[in-house]
Design brief:
The protein has 358 residues and is α/β, with parallel strands linked by helices. The structure holds pyridoxal-5'-phosphate.
Length: 358
């Protein structure tokens, strides 16, 4: 048999996209990926290593994540009838949702610009993606969104609250309308809940149709890869069938168990980052060469008025500061840069470098 060419083997829509790009950050002040800049204190690291010592690496992980599920449900004070599903990062949960809800012609909908993985996962799973433009101040246009819902009858909607990369939360009125009028599953993606003033977790009941998704990534444990989805038990049970049995490795399960016991530390770090965000924004507000957008996350969005974002990106990079240039990513983000809040001294470097290049 003659072998097919790669072109005839790989789907055209896969060949058409670029792999998710992660720049080399070695030796850089890393302000590009919304990580928590603080690590655990040394005494705690020692304790954590003690926990890892007891993990049996020769055995498969707990496939049902029994302990961790029980612990997280207690931690979140979930009522009976609500359950959680763990993913290898919330990225995996996005994919699981799509695999479980996809049928021929099924639509996934999200505001735009928003988290790029919604669209990417839709491409992978061959779900039809519909983006609904945000308003000029990055809020949901409720009437337009409801119109789009009526037209496309989406099986799945993602609302990032706060939104990445715009950093704001949407008006609750708009979100509430979507929650009540959507015919399918709505996932409120609260990756940045620790940095926001409110949440939809408390609004979940065993009777609500929507779900809340969170992650440990943006609050100090990005390396572990653990996200979770909270929703009514019946829905979680269906999604659980699509999950690969051993998707959460033993080291992650043991480490998150440990982290939940030391939750105060991570809460304190998030508080510090919030305060630091307010301080940094206070300073940036004084710089007239940029527009600064509101933030309820651990990152900010700025738009230089007179210089190209690509130029600012490369000049910051030359000073060992890595941020995210969104200038070409979406028309609504024209000339915008996304900057993660780092440690005080890192932010001071950033501000000085910014003043310099502007
Ligand atoms: C970072 C991010 C995620 C993905 O988080 P992981 O758990 O690291 O996969 C999901 N949603 C939004 C909006 C994010 O910004």
């Amino acid at each position: 048999m003659e072998k097919k060419s790669l072109k005839d083997l790989f789907r055209p829509e896969i060949r058409a996209i670029k792999a998710y790009e992660v720049p080399d950050a070695h030796g850089m002040i890393k302000l590009d990926a919304m990580e928590n800049p603080y690590s655990m204190p040394m005494a705690l690291v020692k304790e954590w290593l003690g926990v890892l010592r007891d993990v049996s690496l020769n055995r498969y992980p707990d496939a049902n994540q029994t302990w961790l599920r029980k612990e997280l449900k207690q931690h979140l004070k979930l009522v009976d009838g609500l359950d959680v599903l763990f993913g290898n990062g919330s990225d995996e949960l996005i994919q699981i949702l799509m695999l479980a809800l996809n049928r021929p012609g099924a639509v996934v909908m999200a505001p735009e610009p928003s988290f790029v993985m919604y669209k990417m996962a839709a491409t992978f799973t061959q779900m039809q993606y519909v983006g609904v433009p945000l308003t000029e101040d990055f809020d949901i246009d409720a009437d337009a969104f409801i119109d789009a819902i009526n037209t496309h009858q989406p099986a799945l909607i993602f609302l990032a609250y706060p939104n990445n990369p715009t950093a704001n939360t949407f008006s609750r009125e708009a979100v509430n309308r979507i929650l009540s009028e959507a015919p399918g599953v709505v996932v409120v993606d609260e990756a940045y809940a620790a940095y926001a003033k409110d949440s939809y977790l408390d609004a979940l009941t065993p009777h609500t149709h929507f779900m809340v998704m969170r992650t440990f990534s943006k609050t100090g444990l990005a390396g572990l890869r653990l996200g979770y989805l909270v929703g009514k038990s019946e829905s979680i049970a269906e999604l659980n069938k699509v999950r690969m049995p051993y998707n959460i490795n033993s080291l992650t399960q043991a480490s998150v168990h440990f982290a939940l016991q030391h939750n105060e530390l991570f809460k304190e770090q998030a508080q510090r980052i919030r305060r630091e965000r307010e301080r940094v924004m206070g300073i940036l507000k004084q710089i007239t060469e940029i527009d600064l957008y509101p933030s309820e996350a651990n990152f900010i969005l700025i738009k230089p008025k007179f210089k190209a974002s690509s130029l600012i990106y490369s000049k910051l990079k030359a000073q060992n500061i890595l941020v995210k240039d969104l200038g070409e990513s979406h028309p609504a983000l024209y000339n915008c840069l996304r900057i993660t809040i780092g440690k005080l001294e890192e932010n001071e470097h950033l501000i000085a470098a910014l003043r310099d290049v502007l």
